[in-house]
């Protein structure tokens, strides 16, 4: 039995916001669809728009061994997302600013994480990030709006909902 | 202030179709994971090669 433990403040935190989904969300949705589908539809019913960036889509799709496997992954991906945020020059400019904020801690960051952070910086008031990668979005740069725990039979995993400071 | 576009019609996910598709994608991800484990071992075994070639 796998259960998503929804915090009481989640509905108000996500209402009318865009939620940027990290690659690990799409992977976990594929591994445990029965659990995640209700959660995702619940977010949509609360007027949240599920969004992401092409870098996440690329991370999710790469490695597909055949064209039909690629198509299946892309269909699953598209069924979740309402919108893809285009990467503009000012978002890339934010990436360079973030590199300076992370300092040495940025050495191990993926480019995708930097772009996710840069999108949060651009859309400070309307965009939240949902990710299981809770070590790469430090609290001196990002604010934790909510924490969602997923109880597995032998483990608990946490997703953070982040916003730019 | 920068604004994101308003998505007026958020499409709810079709449960039956999503679960059917996810089962297929899960198998693909497992294949990719096995490949990554195998290539990681290959890479680790060759990890000092570049030092000796330079």
Helix and strand arrangement:
The complex is a heterodimer of chains A (165) and B (54).
Chain A lengths: L2 E3 L4 H5 L3 E4 L1 H9 L1 H13 L3 E4 L1 H8 L5 H14 L2 E2 L4 H14 L8 H12 L4 E5 L10 E11 L2 E10 L1
Parallel strand pairs in A: 2-3, 2-5, 3-4
Antiparallel strand pairs in A: 1-6, 5-7, 6-7
Chain B lengths: L14 H31 L3 H5 L1
Labels describing this entry:
heterodimer; A: 165 residues; alpha/beta; seven-stranded mixed β-sheet; 7 helices; 24% strand; B: 54 residues; mainly alpha; 0% strand; flat
Overall geometric form of chain B: flat
How large, in whole angstroms, is the Cα Rg of chain B? Answer: 22 Å
Distance between the termini of chain B: 52 Å
**Structure summary, number of beta strands of chain A:** 7
What strand line-up does the widest sheet of chain A have?
1-6-7-5-2-3-4
Instruction: Supply the number of helical segments of chain B.
Output: 2
Helical content class of chain A: 40-55%
Strand content of chain B: under 5%
Oligomer: heterodimer
Shape of chain A: globular
The structure class of chain B reads: mainly alpha
The ordered H/E elements of chain A are EHEHHEHHEHHEEE
Q: Mean pLDDT across all residues of chain A, rounded? A: 95
Strand content of chain A: 15-25%
Task: Sketch the topology of chain B as an H/E string, one letter per element.
Answer: HH
Helix content class of chain B: 55-70%
End-to-end distance of chain A, in Å? 36 Å
Any idea what the radius of gyration of chain A is? Answer: 16 Å
| Most extensive interface | A-B, 36 and 27 residues
Instruction: Identify low-pLDDT runs of chain A.
Output: none
Please provide the count of β strands of chain B.
0
Describe, in plain words, how this protein is organized in 3D.
The complex is a heterodimer of chains A (165) and B (54). Chain A has helices spanning 10-14, 23-31, 33-45, 54-61, 67-80, 89-102, 111-122; strands spanning 3-5, 18-21, 49-52, 83-84, 127-131, 142-152, 155-164. Chain A has seven helices and seven strands. By secondary structure, chain A is of the alpha/beta class. In chain A, strand 6 and strand 7 form a beta hairpin. In chain A, helix 2 (23-31) crosses helix 3 and helix 6 crosses helix 7 (111-122). Chain A is globular and about 40 Å long. Chain B is mainly alpha-helical and 54 residues long. Chain B has helices at residues 15-45, 49-53. The longest helix of chain B is centred in the middle third of the chain and has 31 residues, at 15-45. The mean pLDDT of chain B is 84. Chain A binds chain B through residues 18, 27, 29-31, 33-34, 37, 40-41, 44-45, 47-51, 63-65, 69, 72-73, 75-76, 79-80, 82-83, 85, 90, 122-123, 125-127, and chain B through 1-5, 7, 10-15, 17-19, 21-26, 28-29, 31-32, 35-36.
């Amino acid at each position: 039995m796998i259960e998503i433990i929804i915090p009481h403040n989640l509905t108000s935190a996500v209402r009318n916001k865009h939620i940027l989904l990290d690659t690990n969300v799409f992977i976990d949705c594929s591994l445990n669809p029965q659990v995640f589908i209700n959660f995702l539809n619940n977010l949509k019913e609360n007027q949240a728009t599920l969004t992401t960036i092409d870098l996440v889509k690329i991370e999710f799709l790469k490695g597909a061994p055949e064209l039909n496997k690629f198509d299946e992954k892309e269909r699953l991906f598209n069924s979740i997302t309402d919108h893809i945020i285009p990467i503009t020059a000012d978002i890339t400019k934010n990436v360079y600013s973030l590199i300076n904020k992370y300092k040495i801690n940025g050495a191990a960051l993926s480019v995708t994480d930097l772009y996710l952070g840069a999108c949060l910086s651009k859309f400070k008031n309307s965009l939240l990030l949902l990710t299981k990668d809770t070590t790469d979005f430090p609290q001196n740069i990002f604010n934790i709006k909510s924490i969602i725990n997923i109880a597995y039979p032998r483990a608990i995993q946490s997703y953070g909902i982040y916003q730019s400071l | 202030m920068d604004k994101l576009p308003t998505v007026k019609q958020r499409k709810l996910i079709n449960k039956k179709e999503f679960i059917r598709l996810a089962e297929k994608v899960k198998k693909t991800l497992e294949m990719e994971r096995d490949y990554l484990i195998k290539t990681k071992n290959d890479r680790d075994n060759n990890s000092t090669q570049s030092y000796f070639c330079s």
